[in-house]
Write a structure and sequence with these properties.
Belongs to the N(4)/N(6)-methyltransferase family. N(4) subfamily. 35% of the residues lie in helices and 19% in strands. It has 379 residues and is an alpha/beta fold. The structure holds S-adenosylmethionine (SAM).
């Protein structure tokens, strides 16, 4: 404060100290400074109480008259900025979280045995190349394996994609529902190219559904592939689609332990990094805000499935919001975003809307044309 407190300020400080338990939150004035001791707090009640006392006193007028900032608003802002602690009993907890950690000597353990041991001998180069101009901000119609082979190594920042799941969907110009070995051979040939064209520190995010009736855990098989190819598994996001309108039982399995049929209302985003968990980028190119960051690092996203599939006549689109959150959380503006199974261009559309560069590839001319139309609609 740098001055003695006003009587109105003292009144509010006194009210706070009487209202909130001293061992949780306490305000003291000491040598012209206002000190806040904070252990835990119900932030909403705190805000409401301060608001009430500010209105009841003449303090806001005093601040306006003296051209001073509202110190209580400043306190609230500072508390809100301490965002990384947990919530217990409806209160934000600011102290003592370390004591709750179950893992002892985490840093020592990492120093001794290393992290992501499966990806340490990667040998990836840090040299970066430019994506050639003829591919920048383009939708290319063709087989991704063939198209990607024409690109130099290390020229894209992030891959965001959803491959066909070999489930039997009616895509235009590609067969879905082929022999599983042939399916994985083709998928991995394309993913090999994705790893090659990805820059050091870049990310590959694959949207994949956990189970179909063939009992092939394709999300695990895909993860094994990336780990065998020295990519670091950064984690997974559970995309909760709240899709409860699926049928509830397979014939004969109703209310019987013989073979209950499990239902999934969610899909996964599996995230892999090339060479390093950290990605370089400049601060000015960050476009995620505080609230989004706090919300989205909690790895369970509730987002409704895409509703426009009929409009675009594509059987398996993902919603723009899924792409937007992922791009803002894992990439910077101006980054080059690749989708090798681009469909009707949802990834490219979001990349363009959020100030990123893009390359979308799809084997269907029809889907590519629709992507172009969607992209043209964005100013
Ligand atoms: C799950 S869809 C992707 C949909 C997309 N996320 C969207 O929102 O529009 C998979 C896409 O992969 C395309 N595809 C299948 N095999 C391909 C290949 N070898 N190269 C490029 N695209 C391929 C299909 O045409 C289909 O559009």
């Amino acid at each position: 404060m740098g001055r003695p407190p006003y009587k109105e300020e003292l009144m509010i400080i006194d009210n706070i100290n009487k209202t909130f338990p001293k061992e949780e939150c306490y305000l003291a004035v000491q040598e012209g400074a206002l000190l806040l001791y904070l252990r835990s707090l119900d932030l909403n009640s705190f805000k409401e109480a301060i608001q009430k006392w500010l209105v009841a006193s003449d303090l806001l007028e005093v601040y306006a008259r003296n051209n001073e900032k509202n110190i209580f608003a400043g306190i609230l802002e500072q508390i809100e900025n301490i965002g990384s602690y947990g919530i217990k009993g409806g209160k934000r907890v600011f102290v003592g979280y370390n004591q709750e950690r179950k893992v002892k000597d985490r840093v020592g353990k990492i120093a001794k045995r290393g992290m992501h041991y499966y990806a340490l001998d990667h040998g990836f180069s840090r040299t970066e190349n430019k994506l050639p101009a003829e591919y920048l901000d383009k939708i290319i119609c063709g087989d991704s394996e063939e198209v990607l082979k024409k690109l130099p190594p290390n020229c894209v920042d992030i891959v965001f994609t959803s491959p066909p799941y070999n489930f039997g969907l009616g895509y235009e110009n590609s067969e879905d529902g082929i022999d599983w070995n042939a399916y994985f051979d083709k998928l991995f040939a394309i993913f090999h190219e994705c790893i090659r064209v990805l820059k050091y520190g870049g990310r590959i995010i694959v949207n994949v559904q956990p189970l179909f009736s063939d009992y092939i855990p394709i999300h695990h098989i895909i993860s094994n592939f990336f780990m065998e190819n020295n990519m670091i598994w950064k984690g997974e996001i559970l995309w909760e689609k709240n899709n409860y309108n699926c049928k509830y039982t397979a014939w004969g399995s109703w209310k019987s332990p013989s073979s209950p049929y499990l239902k999934y209302t969610w899909e996964f985003l599996e995230i892999y990094c090339k060479g390093d968990l950290k990605k370089s980028g400049s601060k000015e190119n960050i476009d995620i805000n505080d609230e989004e960051f706090k919300k989205w690092v909690v790895a369970r996203w509730s987002i409704a499935p895409e509703r426009n599939m009929k409009k675009y006549d594509h059987p398996a689109m993902f919603p723009e919001e899924l792409v937007e959150r992922s791009l803002k959380l894992f990439s910077f503006q101006n980054d080059v975003v690749l989708d090798p199974f681009s469909g009707v261009g949802t990834t490219a559309v979001v990349a363009k809307k959020t100030g990123r560069r893009y390359l979308g590839i799809d084997v269907s001319e029809e889907y590519c044309k629709k992507s172009e139309l969607r992209l043209k609609e964005i100013l």
